[in-house]
Structure formats: C-alpha cells, structure tokens
Design goal:
Oligomer: single chain
Order of helices and strands: EEHHEEH
Shape: globular
C-alpha cells in the first residue's frame, strides 16, 4: 500500500492508503478524532481551541507520495474531503 504525506495548514500526517483521496479522508478523520478531546462552551470556542492546538484543517489538503512541502501532488478542497468522508459506509481506520 502506498505511503502518502498529507498536509493542511500546520497539520502534517503520513498514512498508508489505497488512494490519495483516501489519505486525505484519513487526515479529516484524524482531525475529528483529535477534536473530540476538546471540551468547549460554544462551537466558536471549539474551533478556536482546535486552531490553537493545530488540529484544524485549512481550506486545502495537499497529498503527495514524495514528502511534505512539495507542490506536485494532489490538492483537495477540505469541503470535498468532508463530503467524501460523509459517503463512507464505515469509519476510516
């Protein structure tokens, strides 16, 4: 299975995945799992806390098989990755 380097804002993760989109979706799931740890009084406080901790995806998610900081990989809009995540029948491992 290929290894993918996924980055968005301060987030840099490495996943073994079947496709670049699957790697991006796995990054989205990672942010969901990390943000589940946040206890906040309001959605705004939750978002600000996630940004402070570096657990918030930015508008784009970049995926590359060569490493971080490269511009020759795939770029996804975070909203598109969210929609792909919603279509999954089972949670991503």
């Amino acid at each position: 299975m290929p290894k993918f380097y996924v980055e968005s804002g301060p987030i840099q993760l490495i996943f073994d995945a079947s496709t670049v989109e699957q790697a991006a979706v796995m990054a989205f799931q990672w942010t969901c799992d990390k943000q589940a740890e946040i206890e906040a009084a309001s959605p705004l406080d939750h978002m600000l806390e996630a940004e402070e901790r570096g657990w918030q995806l930015w508008d784009e998610v970049r995926v590359n098989e060569q490493g971080f900081g490269r511009w020759d990989g795939e770029v996804f809009e975070t909203l598109d990755i969210f929609e792909a995540w919603l279509r999954l029948p089972d949670p991503v491992a």
